[in-house]
Amino acid sequence: MDARLPAHLEVAGLIRAIESQGGFASVIAKGEKDAGTILILTIYRGGQAVLFERLPQLDGSRPYIAARRQNPENLQEIFEYLEKRKRQDPDTWILEADIADGERFVASLPR
Q1: What are the chain's domains?
Q2: What whole-number percentage of the chain has pLDDT above 70?
Q3: What is the torsion angle, in degrees rounded to the nearest 10, for the CA atoms of residue 91, residue 92, residue 93 and residue 99?
Q4: Which residues contact 47 (CB under 8 A, 6 or more apart)?
Q5: DSSP E strand boundaries for the chain
């Protein structure tokens, strides 16, 4: 039996946590309700976007890891990557978070 939260509940909790820290979050792609992969795209006031993905580790933990950073030379690259991910895995959730110090916020999330 898997003890993980269903994806839709985890996303709802992430949105509340972001809002509680003065940020704003919205779901830009809705995946499988119970077991979809969750990606968090952080951006603050039009700054550089960073994409985080929860990846399983050898020790059994599942931290969010910075999977992509927006390329200042090609601003669309990160969004093209998101489209590619959605085609590869239609169960993927993408949450866009406009929050100050997104990396610190993501690092504070449970593993």
Answers
A1: 7-107 (3.40.1530.20)
A2: 98
A3: 180
A4: none
A5: 24-29, 38-43, 50-54, 64-69, 93-98
> Where do we find the tokens 């603050």?
44
27: how many CB neighbours lie within 10 A of its CB? 16
- Asked whether the beta carbons of 55 and 107 are under 8 A apart, the reply is no
The pLDDT of residue 2 is 58
Distances (CA, A) of 74 to 13, 58, 69, 111: 32, 34, 11, 32
What is the rounded distance in angstroms from the CA atom of residue 20 to the CA atom of residue 9?
A: 16
Q: Rounded to whole angstroms, how far apart are CA atoms 10 and 103? A: 18
Q: Which two tokens stand for residue 99?
A: 């929050």
- Predicted TM-score (pTM) of this structure: 0.91
Q: What is the DSSP letter of 71?
A: B
The token duo for 92 is: 């993927």
In terms of Cα–Cα distance, which of 7, 71, 73 is closest to 34?
7
